[in-house]
Structures are given as C-alpha cells and as structure tokens.
Amino acid sequence: MHERTGAHEKIRVLHVLDKFSIDGESLHGVARLMSWWVNAIDRERFELNILGLRAPNKASQYVEEQGGRVFYSGRGKLNPASILDIVNVARRTDTDVLHLHGYKSCTLGRIAGAILDIPVILHEHGAFPSVPFHQRIADWLLSPLGDKTIVVSEAVGKFCVEHRSMSPEKVTVIPNGIPLGNFRNVSDKEVGQAADELGLDSESSVVGTVTRLDEEKGVSYFLDAVPKIRSKVPEAKFLIVGDGKLRGELEEKAERLGAAEDVTFTGERRDVPRLYKLMDVKVISSIYEGGPLTLFEAMAAGTSVVATPVGMVEELIEDGKSGMLVSTRQPEEIAHAVVALLQNSEYRQNIAEEAQKRVQKYDMQNSMRKIEEIYWEISKVEGAETEVPA
Question: Does residue 158 share a domain with residue 282?
Fold first, then answer.
C-alpha cells in the first residue's frame, strides 16, 4: 500500500490525459477542464499534477500558462512503455490517486495503478457511436481494476456499463461545470471591441458556433443551414469559432454555398466569453456528445441555444423553454429554429433567461467539490482526513 505519514497532508492527484488537443492548437474538452481545475481545486488539501501522453503543443502550453504543472510522455499511440512513464511521474510526484481521461490513459493507467498500488479513477466525458474492438477487449480484461468511474451524464454512464465493461456500482455521475462568472461578467466595451475586430456592425444578427472542427461536431450541417437562414434574415452573419482538421474543407463548403462573405472562421480563440455575448443564437450541431462545455458556456452568457439532443443536452434544454432542440444532420430544422429566435427578440430573451437559471447549478466549484469528495473517499494516504472538511 502506498502510504505517507503526516496528519492532514495533501492528497496528490495525477491526471493522465490521452491528449490536450487533436490538431495541436485547439483545446480538447478535457484540456479545457484542466485549465480551470488547476485553479479551482482546494490547494490547501490537494495537489494537482497532469501527465500528457503526447508531446507538448500549444494547447498543453496554455494549460501550463494557467498554472498547471504538466509532464509529458510523448511516445505516440498505444505504446506499453507509457505505463513506465505513468509510474515514473507518479513516483516523482508522490501521487496518491490516478485520475484517467481517454481510452489510452484508462488502459495503461489502470495497469500503472496496480503496479503502484494506488487508487484509480476513470473519467468518461462522452458516449461514442462505437468502441474500437481492441479497447473493448482491454476494458473487459481490466474491468476488475479501477476504484471509481466518473461520468458526465446518465447517458454516458449507461454507455460505460454497456460498452466498456464498467461496473455500475462504481459509476458516479458528476456533470461538468464551468466558471460561470467568466461568461457572465463581460463588459459592453469588450463586446464592442470583439465586434470591431470581426467586422460586425450593430445591425447584424449574429449566429455562431464554438466547437472543434471535426466530423462529430456536425458543423457541415450548420453551414448547410446558413443560406436558408439568410433567405429569411438577410442581415444575419455567422461565426465559426474553433479550429480542427476539417477547417479547410468547411471553408471550401462556405464558398460553394455562396456564404463565404457572411461566415467568419475565427480559428482558435481565447476570448470566447465576449464572443458569446456577440451572438444572438449559438448552434450546437453535434452528431454525438458527452457533456458539451460550450452548452454551459452559452447558457451562462445569456445566449439562446439551438442544439441537437445528444449527450446531456436534453438534460439541460427543455425544448422551447430553455433552448430549442433539433434533430441531428437536419439543416432545415436548424434554420427553422434559428429564424424563429432571430425574428422574435422577446422569445429569444425569455429562453436565454431561463437557460441562465438552469445552468446555475453547473458552476465549476460544485463539480470540483464532488470530485474532491471522491479523492478523500478512496485515498490511502495515512493520516489524511477521511471526509472533506465542511
């Protein structure tokens, strides 16, 4: 058993991530959480370290800039030698709990946890259409290992039990949270500056999406809706905030649709809160999701949302009351919902206000405290308190 002496000593947690980014620059959802968690965790009682299983990039450097202490393995894909990297970093940081994110991390991290004889938490952020065969085998073989599984929604929990051999008794639902204040406290001056930078005037209705430009995010369907929206609301302008492997393809599609002048691809941005404040409507056109952080962000910012009912979207949005739900892969439905909101400012405002009320319970501090409770519950640190102090 891994033990340290000393009453009330900090519990040291090592987060292991498959990746910080898919394209090397855009923050992956888990990396965005890390950039917040490094400052949200109770530093008097916990120490948070991070190990990335890929080489450093701009996204991981951003997490470091936010105060994260980050280590790197960088061995590439499923390389068994990464187990040694996890073990070595855990020993170097005197880790008490391994917290794993991603297929590779959950596979190799469970083995490393057994070698170290320390508790292991698996954290699943999405429910995917399919699980690779090799991962299903690994999950089945390693199913006895792992002390807890945190999932971001009931749907993701069901996915883990049915498709990843996770024990239902070990599954705990803790929805992601965000720093709500960051998305509410944006001044008119900041919004005006962002509008000037992007060439938007006060007469424009702005429809946007904030996402990674990958196939699963369904941005192509959002683009298909653009001409349909403009036929009803000619002054509408469109923002696509984020980057990814499909950016070039999507830009070409905007050209083919004759919408290039009306659609701005901003690339990766670090000033997302003020961009939400620019938007009259935010679209989530994803094909599948877990607990999309951008949904929480838009709701907190007071931006009305049109979204597909994937992941935990349905848990937050009551159709027609706190947002509008549309079917996946249906540009016509996206356009219809967006136009309905743009053409009725009172209805749009009512939806935005209801959304702000609903998202209140998803403040990051709430989710962080629940995760800390699990650290205390499973920790084997000798002399540590067994409950989270009030």
Answer: no
Say if residues 294 and 279 touch (Cβ distance below 8 Å).
Answer: no
**Which residues does 261 contact at the CB level (< 8 Å), separation at least 6?**
none
Tokens representing residue 316 in the block: 């937050």
Name residue 259's amino acid.
A
Residue 371 and residue 111: Cα distance in Å, rounded? 22
Q: What is the DSSP string of 21-49?
A: -SSSSSPPHHHHHHHHHHHHS-TTTEEEE
Q: Percent of the chain, pLDDT > 90?
A: 79
Q: What is the model's pTM?
A: 0.85
What does the block give as tokens for 243?
């980057």
Q: Tens of pLDDT along 163-196?
A: 999 999 999 999 999 999 889 889 989 999 999 9
Q: Alpha-carbon distance 315 to 155, whole Å?
A: 10
Cβ 269 vs Cβ 278: under 8 Å: no
Q: How many domains would you assign to the chain?
A: 2
253: in domain: yes
Distance, CA of 333 to chain centre: 25
Q: Which helix (H) or strand (E) holds 264?
A: strand 263-267
Instruction: Give the pLDDT of residue 380.
Output: 62
Strand pairing class (70-72; 97-101): unpaired
CA–CA separation, 266 and 244 (whole Å): 12
Distance separating alpha carbons of residues 295 and 211, to the nearest angstrom: 10
Token pair for 276:
């939400």
Give the pair of three-digit tokens for residue 25. Answer: 């620059």
Nearest to 116 by CA among 145, 138, 137, 139: 145
What single letter denotes the amino acid at residue 68? G
In sequence order, the β-bridge partners of residue 190 are none
Q: Do both 231 and 260 map to the same domain?
A: yes
Task: Say if residues 160 and 166 touch (Cβ distance below 8 Å).
Answer: yes
pLDDT, position 102: 94
Strand partners, 126: 290
Domain containing residue 79: 11-177+363-378
Q: How far apart are CA 207 and CA 283, in angstroms?
A: 7
Predicted confidence band of residue 270 (pLDDT cuts 50, 70, 90): confident
Residue labelled with tokens 């996206």: 334
